[in-house]
Each structure stands twice: as C-alpha cells, then as structure tokens.
Backbone:
C-alpha cells in the first residue's frame, strides 16, 4: 500500500516545522521562566522541551528507503 502525495502533505509540513518550532520555542521559554518564576522552573522546562523536541524530531525524521 503506497501513500499518495496528498496523503503526505500534512506530514511534510510537520517534518518541516518541527526543527523551526523547537529552535524558536526553547530559547524563548527557558529564559523567561528563569527570570519570571525561578531557575529550577527554567531548568525543568529545558529538560521537558528538549526531550519532547528530540522525540518529535526522531518521530518525524525522513529516512531514505523507509516509508
């Protein structure tokens, strides 16, 4: 069973936006939490955002020969 180009369009958008979203979200949220809440909250956000971003990047990775 092969997927058509129309089926892959939403996935391609997610694949393209995942690195951009993480690289923008991480440096905005972590320092703001460190200044406004506490350093511990900033560190916890860094760990959570970093982990979720890493998992999202792995899940949406396009590997040659794997469909």
Residues:
């Amino acid at each position: 069973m092969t997927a058509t180009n129309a089926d892959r369009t939403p996935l391609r958008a997610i694949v393209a936006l995942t690195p951009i979203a993480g690289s923008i979200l991480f440096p905005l949220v972590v320092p703001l939490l460190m200044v406004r809440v506490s350093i511990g909250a900033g560190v916890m956000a860094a760990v959570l955002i970093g982990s979720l971003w890493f998992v999202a990047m792995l899940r949406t990775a396009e590997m040659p020969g794997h469909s």
Remarks:
- The CA atoms of residues 2 and 67 lie 9 Å apart.
- The two ends are 10 Å apart (CA to CA).
- DSSP finds two helices and no strands in the chain.
- The mean pLDDT is 81.
